[in-house]
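SEQUENCE-TO-STRUCTURE ENTRY
===========================

Subject: a protein chain together with a token-level encoding of how that chain folds.

Sequence line: the amino acid chain in single-letter code, read from start to end.

Question of interest: how does this chain fold, as expressed in backbone structure tokens?
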Amino acid sequence: MVTGGMLGLAARSVVSALMYFGLLTIPAGRLFQVTSGLITLLAAGMAAQAVLFLQNGGWLEYFTMTVWDTSWLVKEDSITGWLLHTLVAYSEAPNVAQLIAYGATILVILVLMRLVPQGNRNASAK
């Protein structure tokens, strides 16, 4: 058990070092672009989920028509479905209101990202 624990500790140390040095090779700007994209998709998914909660609560009864059904491709209760649902709010059969919320959230975030000036923020604070 002690040997297994030591081997596990050594393996975790090696993997951690490889990940750290691998992340150092990625330019910071590119890393933050990818992170911003993932956060945008996460926010859009949360907005779509909020619309579904409002519809289930009887607060929003419009645009409830199902747009498509991809249950034949990825089941929501599969591991892939759970991962996609967590990251981008995947739904087997989204309705129109969910897609509107998803698209509008992405659009608003992208517009606001373009409006905020990019560059050295420390220089503008002086």
